[in-house]
Amino acid sequence: MKPSSILGSIDLSKLEDDIVEVVFAVLAGFAISGLLMAAGGFDPIRAYVSLFKSAFGDLYGVSTTLSFATPLMLTGAAFAVSVRAGVFNIGAEGQVYMAALGAVIVASLSLPSELYLIAEFLFGVLLAITWASIAGFLKSQRGVNEVVSTIMLNWTGFWIVEYGRTYVYFDPAEPQRTIKIPEAGRLPLLVPGTELYAGIIISLVATVVVYVIMWHTSLGYEIRATGLNPIAARYGGVEVRRSMLYSFIIAGSLAGLAGVMEVAGRPPHYAITTGLSNLVGLGFDGLAVSLIGRNHPLAIIPAAIFVGALTAGSRGMQIESGVPLEMVKAVQGIIILILAVPGLVRMLKQWRGKK
Amino acid sequence: MIDAQAIVNILIQTSYAATPLLLAAVGEIIGERAGIVNIGLEGIMLISGFASIVFAYMFQSPFAGVVAGVLIGGFIGLLHALITAYLKGDHVISGIGINLFASGFVPYGVEAVWGVRGYFTIPASLKVPRIPGTDLSPIFLASLILALGSYWVLFKTPYGLILRACGEEPRAAESTGVKIELTQALASTITGLFTGLAGAFLAIDWLSSITKNLPAGRGFISLAIVNFANWNPLLGVVGSYLFGFFWVLIGWLKLTPLKEMIPLPLMETIPYIATLAVTAGVIGRARPPRFTGRPYRRE
């Protein structure tokens, strides 16, 4: 058995190129953003030091980083499965909102306490799958561009959940958020006094399950074949429309898990807050995670920790160096623009050869 | 009650709502006809909107703001072409990168330039003046002229034929001596210039402010209009005014007794659901240029 076959699809020499490319893109992202910070009158070194320190400097920082990585592994894997099927489903954002609403709806019911957690997950994920299936159905039956449909569903979902938050499930004591998930329906904390909750175990398991589905089952094979070349896949006997639809359903369930866990697991709110502020961006950050992880479920784990660290560190960066925390999105944008270019390593080698 | 004045007001508001959609949609039609898909329209609008305010301030002139917004948009379009046409990168991923960069850079820029968090409003003196004697914007007029002109160039000139060939049959086009990458780069730059004008219009003409949500999904609605319009700028005008009207409609419905029956957040969903419904209803007949969105490689 060759060492590369243990990981199924991973070709070791290509893996090395991938790592070099991602590291190069990350460094370039930091460098270009650093120049922009300097141009705006900020000190980039101080900004990055404070970012790094608050993301990794102590147990609290590491816990915060991992807590932010928890939903991003799921939304990242959601996007990765879609890309592997050849569809750019950027609807994880809206599916996260809907799943969170599902969990809050369950919390509003009076149930035996041992049922809350399971009911939140079932109903929340079901709502997310339904939301994803609308785009999947429109794509497979009507040929509607999934970029357009998922963005429209994201906005529609936002306003529906905002409606639920302000009109139906608001907490009379604190109307800026919804009712809280009852204690019996919460996931336990892993490190007391931090935001790191047991959801990270679910995220890790789900990511590995996605890997097994994609590389060790016939469904995964058909999804990947569809993405590589739909025409060839069709000749090979793959039901292309069906594999696309399945990719939407898998993506929806992953994003749904993320949405339920953010309200059922992460302190302090255990509720949906004003403007969905504790949910907004989780889906879009998943795009960055997936692309930095080269759309491979296992590589998504370190990529999610990286983006989680940027998010966790951005708070400290803003406080200590004054650089607005949104700047880490610009870093991610630059990384993705660079990663969009294929064969970067080959070009770098050629360029070095010329010098 | 609905009277003549109310109808005129709705029409004027629709001209505002439709103008940025039309500019970005026509720009994208030109790009996609040449084979370049750019889903970064949202990000281009945002950065161009920001740049237009910065330059309008710097020169104390709305005109300078418009020019800066247009040029920055064109620059991003060119950058997108460098990644997609020349380096053969993935069109959608590059667009995602543009959107993500914009969503981080603009809030940073607002704070770096004005020292405020998230929101900045401009004084009336820096707004683009109205067409004299009307409540209409000169950019509204420009958008219609650009749409008609684009139709004429795309379908009635030899240059338009070359451009469309790059999106339909690049191999055949190349065999007749067409420079595929150059044509695509030009088209992608035009996408950026038009979308940059849309961003400037939002920031220093219509909404006179900058926030990180300035485009509010308009870039993506423009992409839907491209499909609706079957990659034809004249139908793009129809689509933009239809979708713009949905937007005005909810603003108007919010003032009617209907607001007692339908809660405001649910009214906000109307333009997005309408976009989805219309796209799903029409798309069956629309067909994109055969080679659009795919990196063109020689054999």
UniProtKB/TrEMBL annotation, chain A:
Report membrane topology: Multi-pass membrane protein
Q: What is this protein called?
A: ABC transporter permease
Question: Which keywords label this protein?
Answer: Cell membrane, Membrane, Transmembrane, Transmembrane helix
The source's superkingdom equals Archaea
TM spans (from-to)? 20-39, 59-82, 94-111, 117-137, 144-161, 196-214, 244-264, 270-292, 299-318, 330-348
Tell me a Gene Ontology molecular-function term this record carries.
transmembrane transporter activity
Task: Quote the PANTHER family the UniProt record gives.
Answer: ABC TRANSPORTER, PERMEASE PROTEIN, GUANOSINE ABC TRANSPORTER PERMEASE PROTEIN NUPP
**Entry keyword Phosphoprotein:** no
Where is it located?
Cell membrane
InterPro entries noted in UniProt: ABC_transp_permease (IPR001851)
Matching CDD domains:
TM_PBP1_transp_TpRbsC_like (cd06580)
Cellular component annotations (GO), alphabetically ordered: plasma membrane
Automatic annotation (TrEMBL), chain B:
Query: GO CC terms on record?
Result: plasma membrane
Alphabetical UniProt keywords: Cell membrane, Membrane, Transmembrane, Transmembrane helix
Residue stretches in coiled coil: none
Q: Where in the cell is it found?
A: Cell membrane
Its protein name is ABC transporter permease
Query: What is the membrane topology noted in the UniProt record heading this document?
Result: Multi-pass membrane protein
Q: Record keywords: Cell membrane included? A: yes
* Cross-referenced InterPro entries: ABC_transp_permease
Q: What are this entry's molecular-function GO terms?
A: transmembrane transporter activity
* Membrane-crossing residue ranges in chain numbering: 6-27, 39-59, 65-87, 136-154, 185-207, 228-250, 270-288
Q: Which Pfam families match?
A: BPD_transp_2
Organism in which the protein naturally occurs: Thermosphaera chiliense
